[in-house]
Structure formats: C-alpha cells, structure tokens
Amino acid sequence: MSYENAKKGIGQIFTAEILQLLSAIFAIIGTIITITGIAAIIGGAATGTDVAMGGGLAGSIVGIIMTVIGAIFALIGFILYIVGVGTAGKDEENFKKAFMFLILGLICSIIGAFTGAVPVLAGILKIASAVFSLASAIFVINGIIVLAGKVGNAKVEKKGQTTLKLVIVILVLSIVAHVIAMITALVFGSANDITAAMVNGATATIFISSIMELVATVLSIIQYFVYLSLLANAKNMFQ
User: Fold this and answer.
1) How far is it, in rounded angstroms, from Cα 239 to Cα 190?
2) pLDDT value of residue 225
3) Is residue 230 a contact partner of residue 141, using CB atoms and an 8 Å limit?
4) Does the structure show a pLDDT above 90 at 64?
5) What is the DSSP string of 169-223?
6) At what angle do helices 202-234 and 154-188 cross, to 10 degrees?
7) What is this structure's pTM?
8) Is the pLDDT of residue 5 over 50?
9) In this predicted structure, what is the pLDDT of residue 198?
10) What is the DSSP code string of 58-123?
C-alpha cells in the first residue's frame, strides 16, 4: 500500500505547523511588547510621567498589532492543518479521531470569540480548546506511529513514541498556564479601559495574565519544534 493520502496529509500538517510556529513567534513578540508597554504605563502612573505613559500606550498598541499578525498566520495554519488531518484520515483511523477533536476545538474557539463580555466563559472555552488540541495532537502522533510500523520504519516509530510523551507534557503545562491566567483574572477582576484599570488595580491583573500567556506561548514554541522534527521525518518515511 502506497499511503499517498497519508503522505500528502502529513506534508500539509508539516506546512501548517510551520505557519503555527510563525504565529507563536509573532504572539510572543507581541506579548513581550505589550507587557513592556503596560509596565511603562504603571511606572508613568506612579511617577506622574505622561511621556512614559504615552510610550507605554504606543508599545501596547504595537504589541496588539503583532499579536493580530500572529493570529492571521494561526488561522491559515489551522485551516491547512484540518485539511491535512482530513486527507491523512483516508489512510489511517487515528487521523479521523484527530479530525473530530479539531472540530470540537474549533467550535470552542468560535463560541469563545463571542464571549468576551463573560471572562469566565471565555477562559473556560479557551482551556477546552487547548484540551481538544492536546487530544488531536495525541491521535495525529499515534497515527504517525502506526503508519511507521506499517511501512517498517522503526526509527520514526520510536521517535513518535518519544515525541508523544514530550508533547503531552508540554501541552499540559501550557494548559496549566492558561488556567492560572484565567484564575488571576477572576480573582483580581478586570477593567474596560486603561484609566479604570489604573484605579482598581486591574492593570496588575493584565500584567500577570500576560506573563502567564507568555509562558504558554513559549511552551507552544518548544512543542512546535518537537512536533515539526517528527513530521519532517514522517513525511519522508513513505519514499
């Protein structure tokens, strides 16, 4: 059996993960700039320095723009990832299960996009989406392991088993970081504008939450490199 669908699908997943990696890099840069901007705003508010506050606000805006660019890469990558998993699913059952969890994660993300006014629900949906992504990744890697066994590639099969353990650990830690960010927002509250944030202390909440989101993003980047290494070997194992 040639497994042409699996070969094509894994190649698409590989390309999608590169786009997701670019997205994570833009997100981490944007988050760092945003955190720096918020820190400048806090410092400017404490000392009454308008220049520092203005610079901090400008930095925060740039950070948001970088994050939006990252989101565009993420969207394109996600669509290609779904297509790749669906294609590979024609040759291996595990990819079909991965596809199901991808759709569940997508549903959570779409609903979450309309729940910004309810931070608790938005946070829960974000965590649920991350959990579904974890389940999807597990089935994709399992699919690669099964296919490697069928084509007699022991190297990729062993690497898949090692990658599976690493990815689970990294993604679980990432989910924990998201949970901490959500709990922080719940405990300290939030504000609709920067002036109110400085009054009720929500700026500190945004700062702490941003740091936890940064931790989650860094872990995601590590996961992408680990995952990409396996996918690079997997897409060539059919030759």
Assistant:
1) 54
2) 85
3) yes
4) no
5) HHHHHHHHHHHHHHHHHHHH---SSHHHHHHHTHHHHHHHHHHHHHHHHHHHHHH
6) 170
7) 0.73
8) yes
9) 43
10) HHHHHHHHHHHHHHHHHHHHHHHHHHHHHHHTTT-HHHHHHHHHHHHHHHHHHHHTT-TT-HHHHH
